Amino acid sequence: xxxxxxxxxxxxxxxxxxxxxxxxxxxxxxxxxxxxxxxxxxxxxxxxxxxxxxxxxxxxxxxxxxxxxxxxxxxxxxxxxxxxxxxxxxxxxxxxxxxxxxxxxxxxxxxxxxxxxxxxxxxxxxxxxxxxxxxxxxxxxxxxxxxxxxxxxxxxxxxxxxxxxxxxxxxxxxxxxxxxxxxxxxxxxxxxxxxxxxxxxxxxxxxxxxxxxxxxxxxxxxxxxxxxxxxxxxxxxxxxxxxxxxxxxxxxxxxxxxxxxxxxxxxxxxxxxxxxxxxxxxxxxxxxxxxxxxxxxxxxxxxxxxxxxxxxxxxxxxxxxxxxxxxxxxxxxxxxxxxxx
Length: 341
Ligand code: 13P
Known about the structure:
Layout: H1 5-12, E1 18-21, H2 26-35, H3 42-53, H4 56-62, E2 63-68, H5 70-73, H6 83-89, E3 93-97, E4 102-104, E5 112-114, H7 120-129, E6 134-141, H8 152-171, E7 175-182, H9 190-210, E8 219-220, H10 237-251, E9 258-261, H11 268-280, E10 287-292, H12 294-304, H13 311-328, H14 336-340
Helix pairs in contact: 4-13, 8-9, 9-10, 10-11, 11-12, 11-13, 12-13
The chain binds 1,3-dihydroxyacetonephosphate.
């Protein structure tokens, strides 16, 4: 495959395909395994991720790339094949999470800043040698209007860090996924989400221009515009789609080849229905697809539950969600396809 940043980015958002976010940190994957009663060890994490990457149908047809965690990019399958090789053999691109997580932002209670810039140039060079051709950095923007969260300072600090990360990635021959996640955990309404997302994306693209990032060789990973989970409101896919596209039209340059959403705590089917509605009101100047963690993996995790005899069922559950989201990326998904399966 071509090594040009623009070609890698285009392949990441190829028609009907999206990204599998399998980059849960050791702490996050432990939380996921706790739910299904599986002890989180290096071997159980390997077994689980190996079954995903060996899901031939899902990987070959609907997954363009896989975001890995530092441990996983170095791990080997039970038969000794590097996991990175399994991904490549399925025609997908290996990627790597490189941020060091969100920490409290000093002097701004309730805001966070994502760490991980120190030594990043050297780490990227190593990840390139290990096979990564794209990377991810997640900034976390919470909403709590009563406490003046997010502050302008938090948005500035986080978008500046994203821009420095993105420029270093491109220097290393790696496509940056820039992820400014406006959380959907709060009690805010959809219009507040719209305003905070807009303010964040304006600052993000300012910072990317200033850092001289090649936008054609980058991918945006945003939240959808949606009411907070604690608001008690469930927006229709049509409203989410209309407001999500409106905010991008106001802020995201058309030089950006693709936008790959996070699922952020939406249910599996909600994440699919919303992505589908977004594409159904196209055409749009960017590809719009998925880069889901939970919305792709909750079903296979439950089906697997740590048992070898459940591997085929888990792979079938993963293949189903991957296919549903692949259709949603084309705007051709229908809710009947869920029940038919
Ligand atoms: P979710 O789809 O579970 O939000 O995870 C995607 C991701 O990679 C967040 O950084």
